[in-house]
């Protein structure tokens, strides 16, 4: 029984819960609906009811004074509102989608649906927007059960063949220009990329790959780790510590190794000098040049 109720929840077969409220977050019957409108206690999606006010809200294409409106001005007015709202909502978290209804029915006109990447971001926005005003009107905000806008939107409207017009019970979502969408959501993605690169986990991975971190400390740590690793490896191979490769160590390098002929010539010279020293008579001043501890002292 429980599995059956779970399988029909939010569908037309569900005689307890309203399927339109579950799909769209709004119902034309409102509080008079015979089925339950169960509001979620937490959701990544917020509904800002009737927030967008069309300049031709009384009569489509005509302003309140009865003058015809240029469609381009209507679109500019909408995009100004969209950008302003996006900038405000993005303060509370990363936005996955921002949808605004173009419907005319009372329960859907001007509805704004913002879906955040995380539920905590939506809860933060709800807390900060409650009790505030926009254009002199109070902001009515609440969690929405809508998470899949493909099920909530009118497919016929997307194909420009919906015969119900603005009074359709499914969402008619108003579109913004491609350039504005690329500007807003591209900026959001870049902000997310920067926040990931500044996270501690990202720093560790970046430093371990030998790249430059946000500070010099990561460079030094990475350089020291490579230095000790190479030193241990060289010790295992040859049993000796490798010579320093720092610029200052170049001045203290040992002489270039001599050839065999040069070494033989030097050995012969040392032997001659030793024979000459041995042939000197005992008691000379050189024999008395002994170190205090009894070891022979050699001049450099």
UniProtKB/TrEMBL annotation:
Residues 184-300 are annotated as: Disordered. One of its GO terms (molecular function) is DNA binding. Keywords: DNA-binding, Metal-binding, mRNA processing, mRNA splicing, Nucleus, Repeat, RNA-binding, Zinc, Zinc-finger. Residues 187-204, 240-254 have a biased composition (Basic residues). Its main location: nucleus. One of its GO terms (biological process) is photoperiodism, flowering. It is found in: Nucleus. The keyword Ribosomal protein does not apply. Residues 44-146 form the RRM domain. A zinc finger (C3H1-type) spans 12-40, 148-175. InterPro entries: Nucleotide-bd_a/b_plait_sf, RBD_domain_sf, RRM_dom, RRM_euk-type, U2AF_small, Znf_CCCH. Residues 12-40, 148-175 form the C3H1-type domain. One of its GO terms (cellular component) is U2AF complex. The keyword DNA-binding applies. Residues 205-239, 255-285 have a biased composition (Basic and acidic residues). Belongs to the splicing factor SR family. Necessary for the splicing of pre-mRNA. Probably active at the 3' splice sites. This is C3H1-type domain-containing protein. It comes from Mikania micrantha.
